[in-house]
TrEMBL record:
UniProt xrefs under CDD domains: HAD_TPP
Coiled-coil segments on the chain, per record: none
Cofactor(s) of this protein: a divalent metal cation
Enzyme class: hydrolase
Protein name: Trehalose 6-phosphate phosphatase
Assigned keywords, A-Z: Hydrolase, Stress response
Stated role: Removes the phosphate from trehalose 6-phosphate to produce free trehalose. Trehalose accumulation in plant may improve abiotic stress tolerance.
Single GO MF annotation: trehalose-phosphatase activity
Catalytic reaction(s) noted: alpha,alpha-trehalose 6-phosphate + H2O = alpha,alpha-trehalose + phosphate
EC code(s) of this entry: 3.1.3.12
Length: 366
């Protein structure tokens, strides 16, 4: 794996990208410490003051639109045997069934693996702090990384996702790609670092604190700090309380026009309004690995989330590599192939390893 030592600054888009030699300089590349919020905060059950209506922000109609989007982020599911599902599988076949096509396309190319975390390497669970990956999955990812440069690209904070995955040899792109770090190999080695939203850190911390206070009376609501972005979880909030939660979040965000909000899987995701996403992180990592504009690379990106679509789109646009969507149910996607769930993801990773071992040996072991 090639690491680089470059500093790029793009003042126009106010994004700063730094790829630096951390070990050589022996200095922290991070801005001075801002008081660190706790990783998450659960709601408490205390009577609260009535919520002020946001007439100036579009009033209830707008909030209804928010709630509709919150519902749409968990759409009605077509059963795996429905005609809708069958026709979707024709246009988005299983990556396991298409395995030979995928490996054939990699002939003469270096495969680089990009893996989302939640819903891809770990199953979706009620409590975001308990989204552990299995030891078997960890072993599969570790084995894949032995043969192919591998990056975890997640909405989670980089350190948190690193704590879940526990593999030093990987690249980690946390905060939806806004916090990238390469594997540290030794004191003289180079580490890739990219933090295009660092100037937003104080603002994000401020909003985190406000959201924790505001949402504390909504039973089941949980605010998670992902360093350069925030998640407001409503998976455990009763649907009749969604409008109230949306109103509170909207109220806080109305003071922060430089932040935007997207809908994830039963979560409101708050991010800086910079032009950076998981697709940009993929491009950045390919460049850091020495594959900018190269035809000699085959990126494979596996993810289940709407935010992974930005990476699928990049691959589709480049006509390079494959996006693989993890979903049991038909969804609009720019991915080429599908896998049903994390257990199929693990199977796919294990097959990649077997295939690589066989192609290196040149024969099957009986
Ligand atoms: O990019 P990802 O790694 O997929 O992260 C996206 C969000 O994932 C987490 O939330 C999701 O998974 C939780 C645990 O299974 C689940 O409880 C929650 O409902 C899901 O939305 C994470 O907690 C978020 O911060 C990430 O933004």
């Amino acid at each position: 794996m090639t690491n680089q030592n470059v500093v790029v600054s793009d003042a126009k888009s106010s994004m700063k990208v730094a790829v630096a030699i951390a070990a050589m300089s022996n200095q922290s590349l991070f801005p001075p410490a801002v008081p660190k919020p706790p990783a998450s905060s659960a709601g408490r059950f205390i009577r609260r003051k009535p919520v002020k209506k946001l007439e100036t922000q579009g009033g209830p109609t707008k909030i209804n639109a928010w709630v509709d989007s919150m519902r749409a982020s968990s759409p009605a599911k077509s059963p795996p045997s429905s005609p809708e599902h069958d026709s979707w599988m024709v246009t988005h076949p299983s990556a396991l069934e298409m395995f030979d096509e995928i490996t054939k396309a990699s002939k003469g190319k270096k495969i680089v693996m990009f893996l989302d975390y939640d819903g891809t390497l770990s199953p979706i669970v009620q409590d975001p702090d308990r989204a552990f990956m299995s030891d078997e999955m960890r072993a599969a990812v570790k084995a894949v990384a032995r043969y192919f440069p591998t990056a975890i690209v997640s909405g989670r904070g980089k350190d948190k996702v690193h704590d879940f995955v526990k593999l030093k040899e990987l690249y980690y792109a946390g905060s939806h790609g806004m916090d990238i770090e390469g594997p540290a190999h030794g004191t003289n080695d180079k580490s890739v670092v990219c933090q295009p939203a660092s100037e937003f850190l104080p603002m994000i911390n401020q909003v985190y604190k406000k959201l924790v206070v505001k949402t504390q009376f909504i039973e089941g609501a949980k605010v998670e700090s992902n360093k350069f972005c925030l998640s407001v979880h409503f998976r455990c909030v009763e649907e009749k309380k969604w409008a109230e939660l949306a109103e509170l979040v909207k109220e806080v965000l109305s003071d922060y026009p430089k932040l935007k909000m997207n809908y994830g899987r039963k979560v409101l995701e708050i991010k800086p309004t910079i032009k950076w996403d998981k697709g940009k992180a993929l491009e950045f990592l390919l460049e850091a690995l020495g594959y900018a504009n190269s035809k000699d690379v085959l990126p494979i990106y596996i993810g289940d989330d709407k935010t992974d679509e930005d990476a699928f789109k990049v691959l589709r646009k480049k006509k390079q590599g494959f996006g693989i969507l993890v979903s049991k149910f038909p969804k609009e996607t720019s991915a080429a192939y599908t896998l049903q769930d994390p257990s199929e993801v693990m199977c796919f990773l294990q097959r990649m390893v077997e295939w690589k071992q066989i192609s290196q040996r040149g024969y099957y072991r009986t």
